[in-house]
Amino acid sequence: MTIQKRNFEYQPNFLAGFLCKAGTLVASMFGAESVETAAIKNKAVTAAKMATPWKAPVAVATTAAFSEVEVKGEEIESKLLVVLSVDGVSPTVGQRVLVKNEAEAKNDGIYEVVRTGKATKESWLIKRTVDANTTSELQDAVIVVEKGTANGGSEWTQTATVTTVGTTAQTWVGKVSPVTTVAIAYRKAGQKIPSGATTRVKIDTVVKDPGKNINVAEGFYEVPVEGYYSVVGNVFYAAQLGTGGHSNTGLVLLNGTQASLGNQTYSAQIAGGNIGFSVECILFCKAKDKIELAIYQDNAAASEAPTAENNESFNRLQVVRVA
Q1: What is the DSSP letter of 242?
Q2: Domain assignment of residue 109, yes or no
Q3: Lowest-pLDDT range, 35-39, 52-56, 193-197, 237-241?
Q4: Which candidate among 5, 94, 319, 320 keeps its CA 20 to 30 Å from the CA of 168?
Q5: Across-strand partners of 97?
Q6: H or E stretch including 54?
Q7: What's the CATH number where 255 sits?
Q8: Half-sphere exposure in the Cβ direction for 190 (13 Å, CA)
């Protein structure tokens, strides 16, 4: 095993299981569903043992303070006749909203949508939920956000000692759960890989991306939060052209720079069928880092090699936050 400052390289199946910092057992580095299942089970068991006051999930969470609103007891109402929109989502009546960015933090908390609002016709109205309107209900409360551009899939804990709801400031501290950073995408369209060069294989189709971290326009995964990420990728050719042998190496790029190198493989020329090359690693990443899939190929005839098309198992990038 080669250990570098920013990544760990390993051979296929080297990590049959990986024990995360949070105690989640990732049963397989290759199965996104097993990662999610393990994490969810671990969280449930931990909550039961620790008696953590988990709240029912909220649909969305704020990213900034509301503007032009009036606070009336347990309610917040818009002064404008507009539709309620939070983090790119318009929650419906009855859905829950985590308010965590108000200028006066005493007004933060968990609310329920009473009125959604109508453009030019009606203001929106939200009210504190019954499971978060007392001091005991809010002490160390933990909640998961289901949707949203910035906060979808995140987890938040209320860390302040709230002596009086509506008078004492609330403090909500967030983190991104490993479950919500399971992302899988592949390149559906064919791509010609030139000889003698390292080429980015731009993913263009999402299989799973609850955190909305995959940029299919540019073909990369954007890291949502600092941490360790398992990255698994492969590149498959539809056929290799020319004569002689090929030298092929899968790569993971981090911010455009090689972060991990797969095994270099020499293969004989074939006229048809599929042949693939993989790369696997664990990277330490910072928020906004970009993870990309790439391939280096070199052949005696200096010919291009076309990638396989229309198969979500080929030219695939899988990213999972593990710690």
Answers
A1: S
A2: yes
A3: 35-39
A4: 94
A5: 60, 111
A6: none
A7: 2.60.120.40
A8: 11
- Which residues have CB under 8 Å from 57's CB, separation 6+? 96, 143, 144, 145, 146
Q: What's the pLDDT score for residue 167?
A: 97
Residue 289 has pLDDT above 50, yes or no: yes
Angle (nearest 5°) at CA 209 between 206 and 211: 145
Between CA 317 and CA 297 the distance in angstroms is 18
In angstroms, the CA 251 to CA 281 distance is: 10
Can you tell me which residue has the tokens 């890989």? 193
* Residue 99 in tokens: 């308010």
Q: Is residue 65 a contact partner of residue 102, using CB atoms and an 8 Å limit?
A: yes
How open is the CA angle 249-35-62, to the nearest 5 degrees?
105
Placement of tokens 């590149």 in the chain? 235
| Cβ contact 138:119 at 8 Å | no
Residue 42 lies in a domain: no
DSSP 92: P
Residue 287 DSSP SS3:
coil
Q: DSSP labels for 153-185?
A: TEEEEE-S--SSBTTBPP-EEEEE-GGGG-EEE
Burial of 110 (0-12, 13-18, 19+ CB in 10 A): buried
Q: Does some domain include residue 282?
A: yes
How many structural domains comprise the chain?
2
Residue found by looking up tokens 């991104």 in the block? 176
Return the top range by mean pLDDT from 38-47, 96-105, 153-162: 96-105
Assess contact for 210 and 182: CB atoms under 8 A: yes
- Give the domain extent around 266: 2-36+182-321
